Amino acid sequence: MSTSSVLYDHPGPRAKVRNTVLSVIFGVALVGLVYWIYSKFDQANQWEGWLWKPFAEPKTWTQFILPGLWATLKAAGVGMLLSLAFGIIFAVGRLSEHKWISIPAGAVVEFFRAVPLLLMIFFVFYGLPYVIKQPVTAFWSVVIGLTLYNGSVLAEAFRAGIRSLPGGQSEAAYAIGMRKTQVMQLILIPQAARAMLPIIVSQLVVLLKDTALGYIVAYPELLQRGVNDLAANYGNIIPAAMVIAVIYIIINSILTWFAGWLERRTGTRRVRVPRQRAGTASSTVVEPQG
Amino acid sequence: MRMKRMAAIAAAAGLAVTMAACGGDSDEAGSGSGATGIVGKAESQKKLVIGVKADQPGLGLQTGSQYEGFDIEIGKIIAKGLGVDAGNIEWKTTVSANREPFIEQGTVDLVVATYTINDERKQKINFAGPYYIAGQDLLVKSDSTLTGPDQLAGKTVCSVSGSTPAKRIQENYPDARLQQFDSYSKCLPLLDGGQVDAVTTDDIILAGYAAQDQYAGKFKVVGSTFSDEPYGIGLKKDDTTGCEKVNEILKAAAADGSYKAAWDATLGKSGTPAPELDTTKLTHCGA
Amino acid sequence: MHVFSDPKNFDAFLSSFLWILKLTGASAVGALVLGVLLAAMRVSPVPVLRGFGAAWVNIFRNTPLTLVIFFCYFGLFVTLGLSLSQDLFLNIYWLGVIGLSTYTAAFVCEAVRSGINTVPTGQAEAARAIGLTFAQTLRIVVLPQAARSVIAPFGSILIALCKNATIVGTIGLMESSSVMKDLINFNGDAVIPIFLVFAGTFAAILIPTGYFFGWLANRLAVKR
């Protein structure tokens, strides 16, 4: 079912009237709700000038929000690259014919998909230094946490992608005398990666949002700098949170739109997830971590 | 075409691996771990890394790229005493929970961050100071009738999760309802809005918040402290020399007026006179 | 393991997971109802409803959950005065449930919508041909068939929801991540066992859940 319009008939005169009436009722209710919220915030003096004035000053942007945004993007960018590497390695590992590779790879992926990111970042920051006898910076705690989780999600996505390719692809490759590594490198991964591109970009949205959990180790990302630290200076925590939320929504909307555009561009080549062993399949795509 | 894509993926993976490798020996790794402690480091490298708070007005507040507050001024005095220019100090944001690990792992050389000296912490690190004796207190609305922690039963108190003040409320005043956040700046709008009856932590921190422009006149510090929080300067456990040196610097600062100047430039702005630095109470540096 | 032999710590550990399970349970129901409703809106003939559904999904899917939970506390409770319980923790709990439900509903909505797309066009066309209205087509014909194909995504969403419940700790609920943080703060010598116990409990609950949903999805899958 490609378009939702097959769900209802083309509206006739009565249906048109009914739809208009419903639109108006719902619209009015919505506007009423928004106005009520607005006036409540007004009563709580949340629209007062001094709360919003800091956002008109360049210092707020150059010293709080933009550095925070940069830290967020940096952690997300590095985290994404590492996640991709992690994802490819563990997807291939899990598809390996050798049990001593595929079982540990599977266990690692399953474990890191099941542990909350908040716990992981916290552990890397406070616990890992005891193991490696070296401090771990807040930046690397966030990045490592993000990599382990998102890498595991991507590993599952890649695995589904590789398995969804028609069997003829690898059979043909073997037939012309390629070795296993060659088949994987030259035939399977490139095709799977192309089809997985939209998923990779949507995972980037998840990753970007998850950098916000860096607050737990005081990583100076957008939420920490733009909401907590800014409010410590100006005492305007609710307006600050609103501004930061809008920034997140704008950036992530662009990424989501980009994912959609890629998906449309790659069009028919979208991965069909094999049904035989569901659960490891399309499910991974929409995982809504923090 | 295929080759190109493969190459791109390989490049991405390679880049990632390189970055991971770089992460292993990040710049903090080697700093401050010299056997000669902070005195030696200050002499040889002429720079110091000092851990401070970033979200406590009056004490340690990050205002954009700068830090300001009483703790920062104390940090500068110590650096000067060790022969390090203020410009060569690297300030590093710490939160309550990571101060000991930062010292133990050498991420920072010193910690000046509303750091209460206590026996539990002394097992892991060394303390110089105290440079100020704070006490846990309550911040309430100006018209509140609360006068002390004994009246907290059934009232809601706001504090930071995992902090000593929060733990003290839980243990000593179990009838109080404790709302916890990750930073005090989240408690203040609640006090303003009446959702909590009091905010609790050290009096000096509360005074810093109460003195902020946007809350001027709205809140008051109750003024009946119910604990002693001697603020120390944290260093590595085995750095006795460094600790003694810091104590000497503090003594000198009390004598030559730079301690008072540090207070007047920060917390003293609200009119509170500078406290006396009681040099007889300085620690023995674990000796 | 000496940390957990102290009954006080052990109780804190247990009650923290109880909060997680309670948050997950209530939010799963809320998100399911809300998400299906939103999906129905997004495919409905009324433009305003479609716009509302799309806006909801775009806003909540693109905002960090930490901020959504923040707004539930500072927006709904502090500013709008919505107090859901006299008890401090119960109030936070319900605010957390609202935040988790509204956030997760966006993902449920998208899963249902793509589930609807897996139902062959002929099904809806036939339903319309025998005179069913939009609501009837959706309720009687399309959604029951779509349900089978959304089980796997639902499993993933449920697992993510359970993990996301830890974020309610940011507004002061003593759930697992907050309790773990406290235990580590006061037992610096036992960091690794503490982490393994907490992470292990999540893994012990969630990995089987994942396999269960996989099995269920496979069993109920429409073989086409």
Automatic annotation (TrEMBL), chain A:
Entry superkingdom: Bacteria
InterPro entries, sorted: AA_ABC_transptr_permease_3TM (IPR010065), ArtM/GltK/GlnP/TcyL/YhdX-like (IPR043429), MetI-like (IPR000515), MetI-like_sf (IPR035906)
Secretion signal, residue range per the UniProt entry: none
The keyword Signal is assigned to this record: no
Membrane topology: Multi-pass membrane protein
Pfam family, one: BPD_transp_1
Cellular compartment(s): Cell membrane
Major place of residence: membrane
Alphabetic keyword roster: Cell membrane, Membrane, Transmembrane, Transmembrane helix, Transport
Start and end residues of each ABC transmembrane type-1 domain: 69-255
Bilayer-spanning residue ranges: 21-38, 69-93, 114-132, 138-158, 195-217, 237-262
Family: Belongs to the binding-protein-dependent transport system permease family.
UniProt-recorded name of the protein: Glutamate ABC transporter permease
Originating species: Micromonospora gifhornensis
Top-level taxonomy: Bacteria, Bacillati, Actinomycetota, Actinomycetes, Micromonosporales
Automatic annotation (TrEMBL), chain B:
UniProt xrefs under CDD domains: PBP2_GluB
Pfam entry (one): SBP_bac_3
Membrane-spanning segments: none
Keywords: Signal, Transport
PROSITE patterns recorded: PROKAR_LIPOPROTEIN
This protein's record includes keyword Disulfide bond: no
Domain Solute-binding protein family 3/N-terminal: 47-270
Range of residues in the leader sequence: 1-23
Family assignment from sequence similarity: Belongs to the bacterial solute-binding protein 3 family.
Record's protein name: Glutamate-binding protein
From TrEMBL, chain C:
Keyword Transmembrane helix carried by entry: yes
Gene3D superfamilies with a match to the protein in the record: MetI-like (1.10.3720.10)
This protein's UniProt keywords: Amino-acid transport, Cell membrane, Membrane, Transmembrane, Transmembrane helix, Transport
CDD domains assigned: TM_PBP2
InterPro entries: AA_ABC_transptr_permease_3TM (IPR010065), ArtM/GltK/GlnP/TcyL/YhdX-like (IPR043429), MetI-like (IPR000515), MetI-like_sf (IPR035906)
PROSITE patterns hit by this protein: ABC_TM1
TM region(s), chain numbering: 20-41, 62-82, 88-109, 150-174, 194-217
Keyword Transport attributed: yes
Topological relation to the membrane, as annotated: Multi-pass membrane protein
Cellular compartments annotated: Cell membrane
Domain (ABC transmembrane type-1) ranges: 17-208
Family, similarity comment: Belongs to the binding-protein-dependent transport system permease family. HisMQ subfamily.
Name of the protein in question: Glutamate ABC transporter, permease
UniProt lineage: Bacteria, Bacillati, Actinomycetota, Actinomycetes, Micromonosporales
